[in-house]
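Hi R.,

Here's the chain you asked about this morning:
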Amino acid sequence: MFISFEGIDGSGKSTQVDVVAEWLHSMGREVLVVREPGATPLSEAVRGILLDAPYSIDPTAELLLFCASRRQLVETVIRPSLAAGTIVLCDRYADSSTAYQGFGRGIPLELVEQANMLATGGLQPDRTFYIDISIEESQRRAQRRGEQRLDRMESAGAEFYDRVRTGYHAIAIHNERFVRLDGTEPIQGIFEKIKDTIRQYL
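And the predicted structure, written out as tokens:
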């Protein structure tokens, strides 16, 4: 089973990845947690460029870098793990490119779709949990965490993130594998809803 988690920064998706992984491990399931961009040496190097680069990156170049990282992750980690019967939990996947580079950066969606298809080879999650919070809540959570330095994506501004969130909503409406969750609910409440969905596959 392949499960992805999506949402804007501070939504709590990474927290849910961790608690879901712990729950599945407790039932004796083989679980692999990966993140995008990252989880392979090449992908982690690309992550450094994308998030920490001190220079601007053209939006299409940004998309292609994300997709290069994704391709390496899919072919060397995700596909082999799924073939071995491992449950893969992915903190972001191709829908992030649609939301961030498509809706956020304004790259035509058909081009983003083509790039995603090349990167993934058509591999899609069985379920995607989209944890939704407002832009204001995202900013409040960043302040509570005491973040002094924003990475290149996080510093894109509220208008950019508003477009990203609009994109996620559009994807969720038109995609049956999406499960939209209210990120302002307690962690345990969100987790219980995720568990109810995953149990249908176990």
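The longest strand covers residues 127-132.

Let me know if you need anything else.
M.
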